Amino acid sequence: MKKYTIYKCVDDKSFGLRAKSVFLNAVYGARFYPEAPEDLPRVVLPTGNTPLPFYSALRDMADDVPRFEYCQLDEYIGLSDGDERLFSEWLKHEVLDPLKITNRMIFNSAADPHSEVERIRDWYKEKGKIDVAVLGIGENGHVGFNEPKSQFHARANITNLAQSTISSNEAYGKGAIPKQAITLGIGDLMCADETILLVRGEKKADILMQALFGAVTEDVPASYLQDYQGRLTIVGDASALSKIPKSQLLHH
Ligand code: GLP
Which one is catalytic: 147, 188, 193, 237? Predict the structure, then answer.
């Protein structure tokens, strides 16, 4: 059986603190740190309910979080600046403004999506890979907006959202969810030096087990993690980890 570093956390507070400490180690250990601003570690952060205790823990030490460049993971297509459904707005308020992270590689939701995807791909060609990718997982195994059947080698691309993704994101209560999005591809995430997967809640238990120990298949996008060559850490709560063999867990 494959071995992963998996932290099981007893409550939201310890989840947030554990995720924070794994994240800080990753950022401090990133190859560029602490050189010039243009060489800051490139960090991907997820939206969703899962990371909220992590962001709260980061805000509690806002002035002491090392500088990094925030790189957007995914975004809906067709929303105007300032729309509260925008993931860029969500993260701006939740974490980027409080931490005073000014270097931001944001996707433009209102731009022509094809040109925007080209711009993002060119940016990564010029800059290189992601240093630290913090990710969540959808109930259908999506990462970012890489829905089932996304190709493991794909770079930034336009994606049609699964109906189940639209429904679960409507539950955030911010309004109707667009049908299309731009996402970094699994090919981009596969190249990251380090990945931290955050999982909370029993609704994620089955898909997490499948992703980490089931078949490696584009039907379960997160199963790419089994082929991932970078450093992978999973931080979860007891419900999300309930299907994972006990021998795999590091208790916290
Ligand atoms: C969204 C985002 C993902 C996120 C996922 C899980 O659709 N595109 O990046 O990881 O849903 O969200 P939650 O943590 O709310 O379950």
Answer: 147
Give the mean pLDDT of 175-181.
Answer: 95
Q: Residues 89, 83: contact at Cβ < 8 Å?
A: yes
Reported pTM: 0.96
What does the pLDDT read at residue 37?
67
29-74 per-position pLDDT tens digit = 886 655 566 789 999 999 999 999 999 999 999 999 999 999 999 9
140 is catalytic: yes
* 64 is known as an active-site residue: no
The per-residue DSSP string of 116-160 comes to HHHHHHHHHHHH---SEEEE---TTS-BTTB-TT--TT--SEEEE
Residue with tokens 């000014």: 102
Question: 36 CB contacts (<8 Å, ≥6 apart)?
Answer: none
H or E stretch covering 189: helix 186-190
Atom of ligand 1 nearest to the CA of 144: 9
CB 140 within 8 A of CB 146: no
Q: How far apart are CA 10 and CA 252, in angstroms?
A: 7
Supply the pLDDT for residue 183. Answer: 98
Residue with the smallest CA separation from ligand 1 atom 6 is 138
Ligand 1 proximity of 72 Cβ (cutoff 6 Å): no
Q: Decide: 181 and 161 in contact? Cβ < 8 Å.
A: yes
